[in-house]
Amino acid sequence: MTMVNRMFVVSGRVQGVGFRYQTAHYGLTLGLTGHAKNLTNGDVEVLACGNEQKVAEFYEWLKKGPRTAYVESVKEIETNLVTERDFAIL
Description:
- The protein is an alpha+beta fold.
- A hairpin with a 5-residue loop joins strand 2 and strand 3.
- It is globular.
- The protein starts with a strand and ends with a strand.
- 30% of the residues are buried.
- Its EC number is 3.6.1.7.
């Protein structure tokens, strides 16, 4: 089982629509750790740590997001950040 850490920046209508809460919930459902954080430009930063296959599944979900959101794009960024506990909403 290969473990990975990935940072995503999600753009679109992703603030004020429950995006961080739903993202954290889905991440925990997949057994991932990380965080979802609002950025000042209206985007949401998402850190996902865990099984490579589950992170890939999470990435596919981020491209659509919850029903209340409208995702325009998801940018993947390499990162060395690691979160070993929980999926936080920042």
